[in-house]
Amino acid sequence: MSVKKEAENSSLKKVKTLCEAKQILSWFDNHHYERKIINFSLKDWLSEFEYRSHWRYFLGDASQNRLNEEQMLLYARHIAKIGSQSLGPEKADIECRIEPHEFSYSPVRSIKPSHLAAHAGDVFFSELVSSLKIDAVDFLAGGMDSTELEVFDHIPVHLINKNRYPDIVEASNGEILASIDILAPDEIIIDGIKEWLKQVRKDFAIAAPEKGSFGDKDMKKWREFRVLQYIDITLFAQLSNLELTQYQIGEILFHDELCPAPERVRKTVKPEADRMLDRHSLARFSLQLAYET
């Protein structure tokens, strides 16, 4: 298919002028946002980011929109509101109790599917995970007989193989089970955990979390960069199948400032918005607040 044909088949409508963009975004009022977020706590920020991260996932791109018309209307009614209750999916927690077992090469390793299946009675799947219609659920819940399990006995795979069970990996919020031989010396266990983490993150192509915690400097940055405002504008554009330029977004976001708006959007606002919509950043943020309360 030619480039011209692809362009003709695109479902995105280009917004040609700044005036047209302003008309489309007539609902946008930066002062409304600023009045609401001025007293936001870290918990408030987390709730807002989780809410928008959920919607961005289900909006997807123009060719993979996961929302039906009713859901789109729901978001359209809420997009300009701040302080909405997060609609993020519930965490899919998996719990498992295992007996200590010595390993010849390391006291820490990922649990093999066959090992987990042997303790299926101790495994709890949340509604989100159990609703996934893939064979992994039946297998991990003990739905395979012993002869089928034997094929896994000598394969040192992780609990959830990224190629075989991609949906479970996503739903489990990055939680991977490991077995630890608590009879090993502390220093050997700690070294084993470090090596295990490196390997698991490498296998699942997950970068190590950033150091440091979220705090006042981050909240100041989110206000100054108008991150929530940027996210809502871009989500609204996706919802409406519109293509806005960085110039248009920048001029609407920072119309009251002298800085080159498009450059600010590209270099500071968009990277920070992407970071705070990333599920790994949000998981770290949520974990931080859980330990602080």
Topology:
Blueprint: H1 3-9, E1 13-14, H2 18-24, H3 30-37, H4 42-59, H5 69-78, E2 108-110, H6 113-118, H7 127-130, H8 135-140, H9 146-149, H10 166-171, E3 178-180, H11 186-203, H12 216-225, H13 227-239, E4 242-243, H14 246-253, H15 261-277, H16 279-292
Parallel strand pairs: 1-4
Antiparallel strand pairs: 2-3
Walkthrough of the structure:
With 293 residues, the protein is mainly alpha-helical. The chain folds into two domains: 3-88 and 211-292, no CATH class; 108-203, no CATH class. 53% of the residues lie in helices and 3% in strands. The protein contains 16 helices and four strands. A two-stranded parallel sheet has the order 1-4. The longest helix has 18 residues, at 42-59.
Please mark out the parts with pLDDT under 50 across 5 or more consecutive residues, or reply none. 1-10, 80-104, 116-141, 144-172
Average the pLDDT over all residues and give the rounded result: 68
Total helical segments? 16
Molecular shape: elongated
Strands side by side in the biggest sheet: 1-4
Structural class assignment: mainly alpha
**Percent in strands:** under 5%
Largest sheet: 2 strands, parallel
- What is the total domain count? 2
Distance between the termini: 56 Å
For the secondary structure, the number of strands is: 4
